Amino acid sequence: MQELLAALCASLLAARTFEGAAGATLAPMLGRAAEALGAGRHAGRGRILRGMVHLRPGDGYRGLVVMEVGAAAARPIEAGTPAHLPSASAWRWVATYGCAVTIDVTLGKVEPHLGEGGVVVREKLAGPDVTFGRESAARLLERAATHLAVVPLRLPGSVIGMISLEADCQAAIGRPFWGPEMLGALQLLADVAAPHLAALPMAPPPAAPADELLPVLGAKMAGLVQMARVFAEQEETILLGGPTGAGKSRIARWCHARSRRKGKRFEALDLMTVPDELQMGELFGWKKGAFSGAVTENPGAVARADGGTLFIDEIDKLSLKAQAGLLQVLEERRYRALGDGSGERRADVRFLVGTNADLGAAVLAGKFREDLYYRINVLPVKLLPLDERADEIPQWAHYMLQRRHAESAAEGRARVAPLAERALVAARWPGNLRQLDNIIRRAYALALVEHGGATSEITLEARHVERALGYEGGGGAKDSAFASIRRAAEAVVDEAERREAAGEVLDLDLAEAFRGVVLGTAARRKGSKEAAFRLLGKAGVVQNRNHQKAFRREIEKVNALVRALGQDGAGPFDDLVEKDET
What we know:
- The protein is α/β, with parallel strands linked by helices.
- It has helices at about 1-15, 20-40, 90-95, 130-140, 180-200, 220-230, 250-255, 280-285, 300-305, 320-330, 360-365, 370-375, 395-405, 420-425, 430-450, 460-470, 480-500, 515-525, 530-535, 540-545, 545-565, 575-580; strands at about 45-55, 65-70, 75, 100-105, 110-115, 125, 145-155, 160-170, 240, 265-270, 310-315, 335, 345, 350-355, 380, 415, 455-460.
- It is globular.
């Protein structure tokens, strides 16, 4: 074992990507499991098939690779290839107790293992209507896997994923297969590998073609979308997390379009719009007269999505009573409409759920059922806020503008000017894609007004974008001007610290450019340099006809700061200088 650990450590230190570290980890684990099988009571009657590494820190998957026995390296699981993830029950034990779990697939028996104590709990999940016994087991058996072992990937205080090994041994059905010694060795190897798997970057995924449902895909989102592409082909529930407006509904439709149910109905239910007392009825339907006010029959979202996909958004708003009903549907695939005495109905539905809340915290607070949380948290994907994928902003802006231009039945073309793109990238987006869409619509309307309603050739300039952004925050708390200025100062200090670490210096005198930024912003918003000077209390400069040179001096300071920060191209206000001096 010591030699095995030394070889693993050397391989992990040489790895440069998560995928490389995953292969370095799976190879000795599969070898050790095969060696133990060959020397055990089932020698010659079984075989180790494959191993999988699941990296899922926090609320979403980051990496998923598979390695077949005898393969030279691990490979990321891709769309169109068979993939099975351990059941919700297995992940629940692994995540909650940080212990290994073994599964007798044929019998549906889950056995958690705690160290040298051996088997401490046995949870039997057998029966025709249980998700694991009927669906997960069927897919594993299609891959010839009769036994599964899952060990956690542990860091101090947290479980960041798991490693699963599959085996085929008909002779061991109903009998012990994964011995405590073997599980202990697998766990030790996983513990050594966990920090490397968590820290190493993902290999760049292959370029994905754009489509109508996902027309823009930046570098940071590419890996998440690649994961979602694999998950879309499964039947297990996908949990879509991320802030409001980040695109969960769009991704849900995108997943449905790539699922086995793509030709069937896609139904969406936003629980923000449903009062607590109507949630059960909106989910499962009601018969006429089922309650006061039920004057017509409602089939319910589950029935409307029959054979297809149901996306339940804002799942954290589900009442505890409705949570119990949804859990029953997920586990038994059966439900009953309110007031229906004719019997239960079959739920032939793929479930996708969305939330912007921390469901783990809601469980601890007693607001969300723990068993439902683990049932829907099998395939979690967390979307990034728009501020963390700023490379997408110009492309989304162009897409949204073209769509808005087409909706207005306009001819000609519409485009976003380069300086307008810069203004959008520099802005903060707490409302994410939804907020960006609103800003583009508002800026488009401002551009139309400026053009007298003509739509043959529309260009969103920086002044349109800045005015559109200026209307934000009217209905809620707005940062003070000083708070905004302080954020800008913190950004400059952050850059100075970065340069200090690299042995460089950012000159404080460059901060004098702030005066020019204010002046240039005012000139763009007011439409002229003269109006900007008057707005800012410098009408005398205009009267003395010194405003052109004064403006140019201030903008030169801005350009010096821009160059010092390593940005190429024209300065942000150069067009204003040139406009009145050519």
